[in-house]
Sequence to fold (146 residues):
Amino acid sequence: MVVLAAKGKTLRTALRKKADIAPSPAGVSVRDASSRALDTVLASLEDSKAENIVSIDIQGKSSLGDYMVIASGRSHRHVSAIADHLLKAFKDAGFSGVRVEGLASADWVLIDSGDVIVHVFRPEVREFYNLEKMWQAPDLDEETLH
Fold:
């Protein structure tokens, strides 16, 4: 274990400086990676015949990710097939660490790639939760009283 305590340097600052200097391992900027992930998602959803695909830019609204994509499947089986196809597309595109929730019930499947969060719903469930309305609402100014 190496401890960098001399001259006010800590391991955290040493690592931070190294990260500021060194390019990303793949030589791709974060913006390019999130755009590539979004393109992968949209292409996979189109291939799977997902319906009512909506892409929402949440970069200034949340630290959860850069984009949120919401789509519908016609049935439990279709939602499950869309999610499986998307997971395979992420794997084929070289994305790792993709997390999935809700695949067993296939009413609402959430797939989180880090940069892009994908919600695949059955139409009735999508209508009930209405995520688009919440995330597409205009930003409120700081002076606005709630």
Notes: Residues 30-47 form the longest helix (18 residues). The helical segments are 11-21, 30-47, 76-92, 123-129, 131-135. The domain at 30-135 is CATH 3.30.460.10 (Beta Polymerase; domain 2).
